[in-house]
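Case study 2.
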Amino acid sequence: RAMEGYRGFLALLVSALLVGFLSVIFTLIWVLHYREGLGWDGTALEFNWHPVLLVTGFVFILGIAIIVYRLPWTWKCSKLLMKSIHAGLNTVAAILAVISLVAVFDFHNAKKIPNMYSLHSWVGLTAVILYILQLLLGFFVFLLPWAPLSLRALLMPIHVYSGLLIFGTVIATVLMGLTEKLIFALKSPSYSSLPPEGIFTNTLGLLILVFGALIFWIVTRPQWKRPKEPNSVLLQPNGGAPEGVESSMAMNFGNVDKSDSELNSEAAARKRNITLDEAGQRSTM
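Prediction:
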């Protein structure tokens, strides 16, 4: 069916993609122009992979994974295909997030900097752990055809809520990380004097915030939700049909039985009428 408010959805989708792409570009410009580039040698160049991979995977790709079901031109695709795309995007985001953690721990250990002392690190590591658990839960419960439908129905609201919670937590963590890095890195001139790097990175933070707001708005509009597939029959692992399908089939079979009984009654009545007519003709004769 046609999406309600398609033009509004398209405008917001294009805006989200543009802002998200700009966030990735701004992050690359920041580390390449202001932070001396990228490397993997235990120096600050290795640390620079941390923001690049997080913004690319844990913000931009994760945001696209959240709204992939809302794309109306995919509604004719099978639900299994869309689940696979959703899981694939989330897996890429998780891999990039883990690599970004390796980069920052390597840098801290090489420079003898303590690990896990800031609020940014606590919230960030919590978000990564929850995200991996969310990914595993989604894979084993919703992607593979093993879990019973009753369990899927029970966990689906939790899965949706936790996904949005993790996404919001990631954005908050990234904003904390940007501020923390600028406070530590900008000494002369100081961050408080609004140097060009500070202004540029603050702008990056605003782009990330706007991207998150657009994703949240798109995914919470009920009129843009993927419609249910009316003719799809999901089989349980034991070969049985879902509860809703069974009740629907039972109603249909009930109607068929009722129609058959009515037809049989009408046929019996016609047979009785014919018998009475024949009896009347014989009595007249």
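The chain has a mean pLDDT of 84.
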